[in-house]
Amino acid sequence: MWTRDRPSVTFPVRIPDRSAVALPDRPAPLCAQYVHHELGHAMELAWRSPGLPLAERWRRPPVIAEWGALVVETLGLSAAWLASLGVPADTAERVAAHCRYEDRYTRALAALILRCAARPERLEEEVARTSGDLIDPRHVREETERAGYWSAVFEGHALADRTVAGFTERWGECWWGEPGSWRELREQLTAGPAGLSSNGPVR
């Protein structure tokens, strides 16, 4: 499925063993981020226990879903990974650098949205103080309506960072070439961190 200018998204459908992935249809460097992120969601969906009732298989804590997607998304930040796919070295580095910039922006935006959601009466002041005129306060106000989603993204980044750091310590910068890293990721996502509730969308 291709979405024009709408956001990319992955979701299960009412066909056994199938998921739908929607991606923008306009090629751009950032598509490397979209493809890897949604691939991570598709993998996490596929790894859910087949023994669960269908309704439970379709809903997992959003933090777990984002955790898995963000681990896979880190591949798009790696010029070595992109080059291993056959992308020319100079192009791989430019795309990876673009995705690394976007990664930093997304983390900062998530933190800003959560801060403004906690202090709505000072939203405009917080946006102006932290971003100047780079971010429209109206956009932040709209996104505070999805504070649950942004909280999942924020926590998912922290979990993904720890996961990737552990993989890198064990297998090196090219951890993605070791089958054991993917087995361990599946085990971690299946077990999940304790105390998470099931709510919110997967994006």
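(ticket continues) Second input and output from the same batch:
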Amino acid sequence: MTSTNKAKKKGISIFALAMLNIVAVVSLRGLPAEAEYGLSSIFYYIFAAIVFLVPVSLVAAELATGWSEKGGVFRWVGEAFGPRLALVAIFMLWIEVTVWFPTALTFGSVSLAFVGPHQSWDQALSQNKFFVLGVVLAIYWLATFIALRGTAAFSKVAKWGA
């Protein structure tokens, strides 16, 4: 591949994809459990990587090379089980993101409120609905604009964010 073709090719690198997966697994929602289990939680992450992340990545890689056209999960499930179950699969993915993303952002915004030096002021800020809503909406729209810029922008955010 020539250097001009490399410059024109945009996508997510393997490193960025790995960082996206790490961020998805080791995220804010797991911090309370990690604090409770301490260093023994490392075992659970390694176990999850071996029995879940590696097999899922191998299956996704096989499906992506088998059906390289656009469509992702909808296409894969549709080819195997038909359009009705493909609709169910993509709906389940959509509802997961619709429920999980705002929940994680709410947890993050409440945690962000506690970075200050005054405990009582931090607690009041974390209970302020306008603060929490403002942070959630700001990050949600920032993520939307980054996603609209394409995979190259998402790749950069994944590398630096992780």
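Agent notes: The chain has nine helices and no strands. The mean pLDDT is 79. Closing as not reproducible unless the customer responds.
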